[in-house]
Design goal:
With 547 residues, this protein is α+β, with helices and mostly antiparallel strands. The chain contains 15 helices and 33 strands. The protein has an eight-stranded antiparallel sheet. Helix 12 crosses helix 13. The protein is globular. The two termini are 51 Å apart. The N terminus is likely disordered. Bound molecules: guanosine-5'-diphosphate. Guanosine-5'-diphosphate binds next to helix 2.
Length: 547
């Protein structure tokens, strides 16, 4: 009987393993994972809400920022967000549209949180850039685009707020091309603007989509008139149509036709015009993302590149976020699946720790709620409960030693020392800072000599968030004070002796970060330069990747 049992098991196993290969390929092909990038106030939140309307999660419209607000209510940390009307925490939303699984990664737009934003962009396959057409290219957009360029991320552009007086559309395209250094391929073109906004002309389909203000239709269906020369159009809008025809001629002559290859290699962006608040032009962007944006692609890891349709599961953590409930200090590690199939309860290897973990209570981020995941494929984001042992950049696999690369930390530009009012809380302070450091909320440096911890941030608001969270989550009343540190550089060298000498001789300015990497804390630009000259065998890095 024993032999028979084995036979059956073998047979079953063969059936089970041959099915996933096709399933994985099919599931990967129907996934789109993108982030929205914009300068604050361009309309990212509004657009996100409208995108979610298409998923059928209609009740969500108008609630993106206030999501789970009941749970946030007790936390001062979220109060900061509310007071300033900014989105501190990025979130992940998954929904289905046209038989595709869309993973939308929200990125905080406020410049204080750019570091977190940057890392979120390492987990996407494409990006949607929202521009306020009245303002054009703004500062934050420039920075975010630079990050997208690091990985040649394909970008779809949405010119928003055409229901208002905007800048000249041709001028807007010019600005995108010259400032952001990306070629524009207009796909829709606006007919009028502000009070005279009539709709958009689809340059590839030769049809006009008529604008109607205040439409909140879930399907985003608008009246469509075929053909730019359709007499109905010139009857309805004689002036605007004349203007449109002139502009279209100019556009055809002066701008680039849409080219899928150029888009996929990140050198060209298709441009759409519309109004997010009126849900106008939103479906067109979603269609562009489905039709043109890439499904999950190969990702670089040490040793080799990993294909999304490989059978074994792999992925990396790009973000860690405290649970919304301050009473529970558990945190969620956001993992992007890079290959294979994740199944609830599976055992995977946490490669940095060389430890096997069982992923049983993993959450996904369906637009309507946090749900337990049963399975996930490349491109999906899953949330792993994290009790302090996972760090940003950690890779997971079914055993193969892979480390996904390209998840950056940026050298902080602002520094503070921490003092506490109650010295009995030192232990809590250290614990809190260690955890917040691992989460990427702030960078924590422990000088080799001396007992003060030094905090580094990219934006000053990060310190406020940390102070507020230390108080609420760890019961530590901390005071932040200025320090003479002006910049930090991670230090590495093949010459171990030089490195050791450096550490002892400059003990007051050499520190370890939360992940245990050596850094030099410079007191000025001159000081940094001189130190670099004096220690030619050492390399000083302004960014570091997860080791
Ligand atoms: P975010 O900071 O990028 O998330 O921007 P929001 O989505 O919060 O939008 C900023 C402001 O612009 C809000 O007052 C929105 O109501 C408004 N807004 C967004 N889209 C449009 C639009 O299409 N037309 C107009 N007139 N206002 C818009």
């Amino acid at each position: 009987t024993a032999a028979t049992t084995t036979d059956i098991q073998d047979g079953q196993e063969a059936a089970v393993t041959s099915k996933p290969a096709a399933t994985i390929a099919r599931e990967v092909a129907r996934r789109r994972t993108f982030g929205i990038i914009s300068h604050p106030d361009a309309g990212k939140t509004t657009l996100t809400e409208k995108l979610l309307l298409f998923s059928g999660a209609i009740q969500l419209a108008g609630t993106v920022k206030g999501r789970k607000s009941g749970r946030h209510a007790t936390s001062d940390w979220m109060d900061i967000e509310k007071q300033r009307g900014i989105s501190v925490a990025s979130s992940v939303m998954q929904f289905e549209f046209r038989d595709h699984v869309i993973n939308l990664l929200d990125t905080p737009g406020h410049q204080d949180f750019s570091e977190d934003t940057y890392r979120v962009l390492t987990a996407v396959d494409s990006a949607l850039m929202v521009i306020d057409a009245a303002k054009g290219v703004e500062e934050q957009t420039i920075k975010l685009l630079d990050v997208c360029r690091m990985r040649a991320t394909p970008i779809v552009t949405f010119m928003n707020k055409l229901d208002r007086e905007t800048r000249d559309p041709l001028e807007l395209l010019d600005e995108v091309e010259s400032v952001l250094k990306i070629e524009c391929a207009p796909v829709t073109w606006p007919i009028g603007m502000g009070k005279n906004f009539r709709g958009v002309y689809h340059l590839l389909n030769d049809e006009v989509m008529l604008f109607k203000a205040g439409e909140e239709k879930a399907d985003g269906a608008y009246e469509i008139i075929k053909g730019i020369d359709n007499p109905r159009l010139s009857e309805m809008f004689p002036l605007e149509m004349e203007q449109l025809k002139m502009e279209v001629e100019l556009v055809h002559g002066a701008s680039h036709p849409f080219d899928l290859e150029r888009f996929l290699s990140g050198v060209q962006t298709p441009v759409f015009f519309g109004s997010a608040i009126n849900n106008f032009g939103v479906r067109e962007i979603l269609s562009a993302l489905i039709d043109w944006a890439p499904a999950p692609r190969e990702r670089d890891a040490t040793v080799r590149a990993v294909r999304p349709d490989e059978q074994p599961f792999s992925g990396f953590v790009f973000k860690i976020q405290a649970n919304m409930d301050p009473a529970h200090r558990d945190r969620i590690a956001f993992l992007r699946v890079c290959s294979g199939r994740f199944e609830k309860g599976m055992k995977v290897k946490h490669l940095r720790l060389g430890r096997e973990v069982k992923l049983s209570s993993v959450v996904t981020f369906m637009a309507s709620s946090r749900e337990q995941v049963e399975e996930a494929y490349a491109g999906d984001i899953i949330g792993l409960p994290n009790h302090g042992n996972m760090q940003i950049g950690d890779s997971f696999s079914e055993g193969e030693m892979l480390t996904f690369t390209g998840i950056p930390y940026f050298a902080p530009e602002l520094f503070r020392t921490v003092r506490i009012r109650n010295p009995l809380k030192t232990k809590q302070l250290h614990k809190g800072l260690q955890q917040l450091g691992e989460e990427g909320a702030v960078q924590v440096f422990k000088p080799v000599m001396g007992s003060d911890l030094i905090l580094g941030a990219v934006g000053v608001l990060q310190f406020e968030v940390v102070a507020s969270r230390l108080l609420n989550e760890y019961g530590v009343d901390a005071v932040f004070e200025g320090t003479n540190t002006s910049s930090a550089r991670w230090v590495s060298s093949d010459d171990k002796k030089s490195l050791a000498d450096f550490e002892t001789q400059l003990a007051h300015n050499v520190a370890y970060d939360a992940a245990g990497n050596l850094a030099y804390l410079a007191t000025s630009g001159v000081n940094l330069r001189l130190t670099q000259e004096r220690w030619p065998k050492l390399q000083f890095h302004a960014t570091r990747e997860h080791a």
